[in-house]
Amino acid sequence: MIHFFVLGLVVFGLYRVLEKQPEAEVDPFLVEVSSADIEWFRTMWSKRMGREPTVEELRGQVHQLIREEVLSREALAMGLDDGDMVVRRRLTQKMDFLFRDLSDIAEPSDSDLEEYLKRNPGAYEIPGELTFTQVYFNRDERGEVAAFGGMAPEPRPGCPAKGHRALHGCPGCRQSVRPCTGRASRSG
Q1: I need a surface site. Which of 26, 63, 76, 166 has the fewest CB within 10 A?
Q2: What's the predicted TM-score (pTM) here?
Q3: Four-residue CA torsion sign, 45, 51, 52, 57
Q4: In b/e form, how buried is each residue of 117-133, taking b as 16+ CB within 10 angstroms?
């Protein structure tokens, strides 16, 4: 009975040691502003104002982002989003906008697709394929002439193995399957 108790302690101890430690929580006081955020601010400012923002204007945008992030975190922590009809309607409105944007994507016409295919043929070309089929010719069962469909292989002109009609393996012969010995051979 004691051995089960000891075994249970060992298993419990291993579990505690090998258990994955929870990842460190995100610091609630840390607000990260990435270079992508700053680039987005710069792009949006340029589109709205027609010029590049100054350093002070970018700094103001970053401060605004930090303020919004801190206030939104605090509002969520206080539960201000629970049961708030304005927040609920705003989220519903955002989802409606998202669905409309997705439904506004028109299906391309056949002429549009053909034009796109003409501009990008390489993306849709199917590369050529090679296949190999192995054919086994058994001269012992079917005979030499029958094994080749009624045609016996011809030796290469000038082959030293004169008068033979079997597969012999001379260099340059199309039916080459084994080394040429220089003489006619009936062995398979």
Answers
A1: 26
A2: 0.38
A3: negative
A4: eeeeeeeeeeeeeeeee
